[in-house]
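Support request, please re-run this one:
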Amino acid sequence: MSWGVIGVLLVAGWLLQTIGETAFIVVFWIVVGLIVLAQVLKLLAQMGVLRSPEASASGRVNQAHEAKWHQSQQRRLRKVGELLSALERRNSVEVERLVLTDNVSPYESGSFHGKVGTTGYAYAKEIGFDEAVTFFEEWTRQGASARIDR
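Re-run finished. Output below.
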């Protein structure tokens, strides 16, 4: 008999005396059940039924998710660009639509006229579009009930 088996038998005997026969049997079958479950999961993993997602080189889960993520980023950057363009034209209706309907945050950054990292809020302040600045601040506090004063 190896020392490992002797150790397990000593621990089992101590546990049997400590918690009683019925509780020991319950604990024994729970441990056996967990061991069997682990073996079944191991076999399923070896068969390929269970497998962990493989990360791509960029750290994303797979090519399909990566493509979706890039499309989402492009869409977001395009919408931020539209918001910045609407601010430049001082088109309050378009600004309100983009923020309230298209869910473009005035605090998301984008690139505009070669400037990277410009937010709608900062650009509205920069060009002095006070109605938009007030709208963005109200939008932050009140959400969708905010409106641009015309």
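The first strand starts at residue 109 and ends at 112. The two ends are 89 Å apart (CA to CA).
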